[in-house]
Structure prediction request, 151 residues.
Amino acid sequence: MLELIVAFDDNRLIGRGNELPWHISEDLKHFKKLTTGNRIIMGRVTYESIGKPLPNRESIVLSRGVFEVEGVKTYDSVNELRANLNDEKNFIIGGSKIYEALLPYVDILHISHVRGTYDGDVYFPEIDFSEWEIMEKEKYEEFEYIMYKRK
Prediction:
């Protein structure tokens, strides 16, 4: 199963440089709770911004260039990645190019909609929410978490 997890603001902003434009402890805890024990899929830039494999998760990097890090699986194409996934939970965690490339294959969206607008330069791709149904909603002080399933 391919799932996508993202936090974005009212304008779908997800990043500033190689960092999050906000620090929301509750959202980071929610991310950890959902992804621990599962695979996380990211692009090279996202991996480099994190700096190391996240604990208790299998890290996969999708990168066109040569990228080798101990303890990290690397694929150089979407087709190669998809051919090597199994039915376990696989979470796409960014960045924007990886979200855009893999969004057509995603079964579940986990979106933390951060209230307000922030300064930044990296955005989540346009999405047609009519193709998705809401499965779960949780309100937090600074964001609303919504889980969607593809119709």
Summary: The chain has four helices and ten strands.
